[in-house]
Each structure stands twice: as structure tokens, then as C-alpha cells.
Specification:
With 242 residues, this protein is of the alpha/beta class. It is 52% helix and 11% strand. It is built from eleven helices and six strands. Strands 3-2-1-4-5-6 form a six-stranded parallel sheet, with helices on both faces.
């Protein structure tokens, strides 16, 4: 018999600010909408080359807007450095492209927070809540800027604690702070490699949030242990956590 659920831990990017779609995929979609003809596998190394330098270099007080703008700025610099896709967009369209991409990203994230905040408030009335995220060192400031920080008893940032998911060490920080146990905790995240694997190593249950087409493809290809539950939108948690 499973222990009653007392604690919910959440990933941040892709889980609380979107419907199970990570930042890399969302930026790729936005750049494609800007006319950048680049495949997902070619965009990935460009994204990581822009993303990695932000880890530990952003101010701990930088909010979501500053973080997304810094990432978009790095992406523009990296795209220019590699000459990636400029022939598809043209010089005129490239002007202020990074600003447009950042603005659209923030608009969509804001809509997700607005929709998800009442759900998190309802969950807070029933469970201990926390966030465990592989982030830049400014997770708390980002959560404050998104007006969700008061809902969480702990916000664990990989850069601040020196451990990344799926390393159990990062989860231990959250559980110890909340005085929770793995057996009574569920982790909610969008990544099988980081989130589900981290939950598995800790002995926690895992709820996967991802678009239906991703769930279907990934589940067919995966030989990992089964997932406790799947959802396509954070509000669907209310149907599972009764």
C-alpha cells in the first residue's frame, strides 16, 4: 500500500510555466515562428551554448524577465556567431528578433502562471509544496517575480546547492527543509531523464506533465519503470490528487 501523499515537489521550467514543454523546445518554436529555418537537433547545441554561460553569472536578484532576456540575447549572439539561419530570415527581420522572442516567451509564461496559480493555491491548502530545479542561481527571484514564491515552502536551485537533478542530493535538500519523506512525496516534472529518474532514485512517486504526443512517443521508447500518473496540463493534477 502506498503512503498518503503529504508533499508535492515541482520542477520549474516547463512544469510551472508551461504545459510540459522545456525552455529549449519553446525557444526553438518561437524562432521557427520568426522564420528561422533550423531543425531541433541543430538548434539544441546553439541553445546550450547560450544557456550554459548564464549558470552562476546571473544576479541572484534577476527575475524572470531579466533571465529570459539574457538568454535571448545570448541566443542571438550565438546564432550570429555560427551564421545559423540568417539566410532564411533576412537582415530586416533579424532586427530586434531576440526582443520579440523574449517578449512572446514571457507572455506565454505569464498566461501559464495566471492559469496555474489558483491550482497551486488549492494544493498548498492540502500539501507541503516545494520546487526542485536545475537553474541559474536565481530561482527564488524568478519565482518572486512570477508571484508564486509564497506558495512554496522551499525553492531548491541546483546552482545554489551544488547538485543537479537527477542527483538525489538536490532532492534531499527539499525534503529536509520541508521535513518530508520520499514515501509520502510526489515529484511533478516534464523531463524523464532528470525528473523521473531523480524521483526513482529517491523512491518518490512521479507525475509526468507533457503534451500527449510526447507522452506517447517517449513511453513507447522507454524501458524505465512505469510512471505514477501523467497529465498534459498542471490543472489536471486536481483530477488525480483527490
Amino acid at each position: 500500500m502506498m503512503e498518503p501523499i503529504e508533499t508535492l515537489l515541482f520542477d520549474f521550467g516547463g512544469t510551472l510555466d508551461a504545459d510540459g514543454v522545456a525552455w529549449k523546445e519553446r525557444f526553438h518554436t518561437l524562432y521557427r515562428a520568426e522564420g528561422l529555418g533550423i531543425a531541433a537537433d541543430a538548434f539544441a547545441p546553439i541553445f546550450f551554448a547560450a544557456d550554459d554561460p548564464l549558470v552562476g553569472s546571473l544576479s541572484s536578484t534577476a527575475g524572470l524577465s531579466e533571465t529570459v532576456t539574457a538568454l535571448a540575447t545570448n541566443l542571438e549572439a550565438e546564432l550570429t556567431r555560427r551564421g545559423a539561419g540568417t539566410e532564411d530570415t533576412g537582415a530586416v527581420n533579424e532586427q530586434n528578433r531576440g526582443q520579440r522572442v523574449a517578449s512572446r516567451f514571457l507572455f506565454e509564461a505569464s498566461a501559464a502562471f495566471t492559469r496555474n496559480r489558483p491550482i497551486l493555491e488549492a494544493l498548498k491548502a492540502r500539501y507541503r509544496l516545494g520546487i526542485v530545479s536545475n537553474f541559474y542561481g536565481n530561482l527564488e527571484a524568478v519565482c518572486r517575480s512570477a508571484a508564486i514564491a509564497p506558495l512554496f515552502g522551499v525553492m531548491v536551485d541546483s546552482q545554489c546547492v551544488g547538485a543537479e537533478k537527477p542527483d538525489p542530493a538536490i532532492f534531499h535538500v527539499a525534503l529536509e527543509t520541508l521535513r518530508a519523506t520520499p514515501e509520502t512525496t510526489v515529484f511533478v516534472g516534464d523531463s524523464l531523464r532528470r525528473d523521473r529518474e531523480g524521483a526513482r532514485r529517491m523512491g518518490m512517486r512521479f507525475i509526468w506533465i507533457a503534451p500527449q504526443n510526447v507522452q506517447t512517443a517517449e513511453t513507447r521508447a522507454s524501458a524505465e519503470p512505469p510512471i505514477h500518473a501523467t497529465v498534459t496540463r498542471l490543472p489536471d493534477l486536481m483530477k488525480i490528487l483527490r
